Structure formats: structure tokens, C-alpha cells
Amino acid sequence: MPGVFDNPYRPAPGSLPPELAGRTPQISAAHYASGLTRTGGAAQPIVFTGLRGMGKTALLRYSVAAAEELGAVVLYSEASTETSLAAALRRSLEHAKAQYAPIPAKIRKAFDVALRSLPKATYELPGDAGGITFEAPRGEHHEGFVEALETLNAEVRRHDRFLLLAVDEIQDGAINDLRVLVRFVHLTAGTAAPVLLLGAGLPNTPAHLHAVRTYTERWRYSRIGLLAPDNTIQAIANPATARGVTFEPAALQRLVDETAGYPFFIQEYASAAWSEHRAKRVTLADVEAIAPGVRNLLESSFYDERFRRLTPRELRYTLCMADIGAGSHTVGDIAARLGVTSENVSSVRNQLVKKDVIFAPAAGLVEFRMPLTEQYIARHRTELERRAK
Ligand SMILES: Nc1ncnc2c1ncn2[C@@H]1O[C@H](COP(=O)(O)OP(=O)(O)O)[C@@H](O)[C@H]1O
Ligand SMILES: [Mg+2]
Q1: Residue nearest (by alpha carbon) to ligand 1 atom 14
Q2: Which candidate, 320, 321, 318, 322, places its Cα nearest to that of 355?
Q3: Tens of pLDDT along 96-128?
Q4: pTM of the model
Q5: Where in the chain is CATH 1.10.8.60?
Q6: 235 C-beta closer than 6 A to ligand 1
Q7: Which fold has domain 309-388?
């Protein structure tokens, strides 16, 4: 079958797309920060924020790879509510040690020191939520760890390289853990060996990190969103062109409409269209053939399940949000439109947060958790209104 094994699109979370379209400002900012750090200047930490599937991880990975070309030694970790950052860092240190195998023995030794100084897994106790939280005794372990990172940093610098800490899903990091990392990064900012921190997280990241505020209030948060039509076209057409395949303009236009510039959808639709094409050409007919199937698949995995579980009152709340439009809305505005007080609907709001349909990007604001929820509601309006009665 033609085109199946050389499909260039990457419809999987965290995968680097064949064309990272529309993110030039973020790529440049991260590149500048890396260059500055390499020459001994302290750069503000940068955190890419955005809804799921917007391309935060892809952007972080891309920026990290670019920094490695400038000489960065990278500790890449993913924070999670299930495990401690110490455990995540342990993995990242082990990974880095293996990945940078050709690095001088001294740096390798410093990796070992850092690994040994990490709080042990035995200090991970079940937290209130039933998950695992990091509960190392205050003081010595953290201090030991910071010292070990300092040693590692000094070794890395001695060999003309610099240290980059990359933390994905940073909104899930325990505040105490993050405080240690952040303090370390800020300690180095005043020295000739600054460490760069790049992160990625959901839009509530700034609110989450508020608790570390003395350190994080001047961080640079860069929110990424849907791609503009020309960037969507670039993301779809360029990888095909590189393989000698062309998209009909009408096919591209249809994909722009179907995907609404949502990176995750772009990869899904483009990948399906690619599988459908024949003779080095993706036609409008190809796109029309795959569109209903892809849409059903995406709707069932992104929205259907969430909306099925909503009560009439909860549905009315979401319909009202959709009426106001895309983006975040004040809880007061929604309540006013519903003709009630904010307190009156606070339990509805809490339920919707619990059911993962909305979240609070900041105090007093709510926003749909999944991108393009407004469009989903518009397409299923009649049925949702009937259920909202
Ligand atoms: N700028 C972009 N252009 C095209 N596709 C992208 C872009 N950024 C990410 N993608 C694709 O979108 C999907 C989601 O990206 P991911 O980085 O996992 O999002 P997030 O981390 O925000 O949830 C992946 O399939 C990825 O390859
Ligand atoms: Mg991600």
C-alpha cells in the first residue's frame, strides 16, 4: 500500500511533529535564553502554557534539542501527581548520564553524586489524595540534593557546557519539590554558571506556582493556542511536499476548517488523509472520505464521555459558557447570564471541574478543559439542549 509506512504525521501526544508550525516566537525566545545561558548570562525561566494537545511538549522537546546543539546538558523530567519530582529527576539523571556517554568522566561522576543525593523512594508516602507525595525530612536531603546539583553544574561548566532543567506538566509538581528546584535555579542566576529552566504546563500553571511566588513571579509564561490558517497549511503541506506529495488547495482549506488549527487534530486528520491518497496527490475527495471517521473518533475520545456524565444544571452551565465564546470567562459573568448568583452555581462549577470539563486558569475564571469544546457544543446543540431541560 502506498504511503502507509512513510506517513510523516505524528498523531501521538508528545511527539515532535514533522513541521513545528506557528511557534517561531516561542522557539526564538527559548533559543535566545539558551544562548544567553551558555555565555554566562542568567535568563528568566520560560514556561509554555496551553490546553491539552496544543503542542507544549513538542515545543519543549524541540527547544531542548536546540539547546543541546548549543552545548546544554539536559535534565528532562515530567512532573506528576503520582510520583515525586525526586523520582522524576532520578530518571532524568539516569537518562542524561546514559545519553551523554561520551562526556568526560568527571561529569559522569557528578551525575552519580547527584543521583546518590536524591531523596530515596522510601520517603515517598501515600498522600491525602491517595497518590504518592514527596515527604522527605525537611532540610538535609534537599540541601544535599541542591549541593549535588551545584557540583554537577560546576562540572558541566568546566567542560564548556551548561545545565538545562526541563520540566513538563509542571502544574502537577508538588510545591515543595518545585521550590527546591526553583531555588537552585535562582541561586545560580547570580553566578557565572547560571542554569536555565524551561517548562511546560496547563494554563493554571502560573496560579499553581503562585505558592513559590517570590521566585516565580517574574518568570516568562508563554501561552500557546490554535494555529492560524496559514500555519495550519504549513504544518500539513510542508511534510508532504518534502516527500513529493501535494495537497490540493481545496483539500487544505477543508482541513483548515475541520481542524480549526488545533495541533492534535491537525496530525490526526493529516495522517488519515495521507493514508487515503493515491498518485502523489491528496485531493478534496480524500479529505472528505476520511473526515467523518476522524471526527467521530476525536469526538468520542475528547468530548462525548465527559458530556455524557453531566446533569441538566451542569449542561446549562456549559451551554452558557459556549454562548459567551471561546477562552476564559469570569464566574460572575456566567452566573449573571444564568440569572443567579455566583454562590448559587458554585457547586455546579465544582462538579464541572471534578468531571474534567472546565478548570480555573486563575481565581474567579473558568475555561473549558478541552480545546474547541465550543465547537463541539455547537455541533450537538439540539441534543444537549434537550438533555439540559
Ligand atoms: N506547532 C505544531 N504544528 C503541528 N503539529 C503540532 C505542533 N505542535 C504539536 N503538534 C502535534 O500536536 C500533538 C499534540 O502535541 P503535544 O506536544 O503532545 O501537546 P501538549 O503537550 O500541549 O498536550 C502531537 O501530535 C504533536 O505532534
Ligand atoms: Mg504534553
Answers
A1: 53
A2: 318
A3: 777 776 677 777 777 777 777 665 543 333 333
A4: 0.88
A5: 227-302
A6: yes
A7: Arc Repressor Mutant, subunit A (1.10.10)
